[in-house]
Design a protein that fits this description.
By secondary structure, the protein is α+β, with helices and mostly antiparallel strands. The chain is built from 3 helices and 2 strands; from the N terminus they run H-H-H-E-E.
């Protein structure tokens, strides 16, 4: 999805995308943090960003993929 979506829905900093690119460890880490902040219950968050091809993107090779996994915390309050 777009860089705008990463910023709008997951709170990835524009500076992170501008500095490291959408396909980067730093961006996926911020995507995970954004997902976990939205979780209402303890959840497993998975974020993936990569270059699918057929051509390079951001001067990064086709096939480069970053996959992040994080378990969110949640409040003890029950609904």
């Amino acid at each position: 999805y777009s860089n705008e979506s990463k910023r709008k829905f997951l709170n990835v900093a524009k500076k992170t995308i501008d500095s490291h690119g959408a396909v980067s460890y730093e961006t996926v880490k911020q995507m995970l943090i954004g997902l976990c902040k939205q979780a209402k219950f303890k959840s497993l968050a998975i974020a993936i960003s990569g270059v699918a091809g057929p051509s390079r993107s951001e001067s990064k090779p086709v096939g480069l993929v970053f996959i992040g996994v994080k378990i969110s915390s949640c409040s003890t309050e029950r609904i």
